């Protein structure tokens, strides 16, 4: 009994040690973008959205055809504002990945049609470009949407502040050595 328990405890520690945080910038260079728009994440990893410029949301959307810019209730950051040119103390919305199914999201800012301008993304997107949960199809649906749905409240994650890592390539490469 004890033996089994300590194995479980040890493996829980190991998976915690391997858990990664994936940072996605919101509004890079003042544009209507998530950068990068997709990340591949494992169960237990965190995804941290960080606002770098402009007034945006990260809202879970999609789940059915044509719904890329409509809330599906899984999570919502509410409207947060990034301060252009600042790398520290920027608003963040952080969530934990609980399964490896596609998790699709969009920006609900209707001033200047953010979702319609392809401000959509996915954690673990479908690889097949014909799948509704692929980035290609999300972008296609988004471009055909008249008006985005706005969700109320902060749900499914935590709002805080953080620093822009801005070193996505280097971080990705160094993970091979660190992990
Ligand atoms: C951010 O955008 C929302 C939705 O368009 C708007 O209601 C809100 O006033 C904006 N906030 C600021 C500070 O401009
Ligand atoms: Cu936006």
TrEMBL record:
It comes from the Eukaryota. The keyword ATP-binding does not apply. It comes from Rhizodiscina lignyota. Keywords: Signal. Residues 1-19 form the signal peptide. This is Phytocyanin domain-containing protein.
């Amino acid at each position: 009994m004890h033996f089994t328990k300590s194995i479980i405890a040890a493996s829980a520690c190991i998976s915690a040690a391997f858990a990664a945080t994936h940072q996605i910038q919101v509004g890079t260079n003042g544009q209507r973008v998530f950068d990068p728009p997709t990340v591949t994440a494992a169960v237990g990893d965190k995804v941290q959205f960080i606002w770098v410029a402009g007034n945006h949301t990260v809202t879970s959307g999609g789940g059915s055809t044509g719904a890329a810019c409509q809330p599906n209730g899984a999570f919502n950051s509410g409207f947060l504002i990034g301060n252009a040119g600042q790398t520290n103390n920027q608003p963040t919305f952080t969530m934990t990945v609980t399964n490896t199914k596609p998790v699709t999201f969009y920006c609900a800012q209707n001033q200047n049609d953010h979702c319609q301008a392809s401000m959509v993304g996915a954690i673990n997107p479908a690889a097949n470009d014909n799948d509704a949960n692929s980035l290609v199809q999300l972008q296609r649906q988004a471009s055909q949407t008249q008006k985005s749905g706005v969700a109320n409240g902060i749900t499914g994650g935590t709002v805080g502040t953080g620093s822009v890592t801005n070193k996505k390539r280097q971080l990705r490469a160094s993970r091979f050595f660190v992990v």
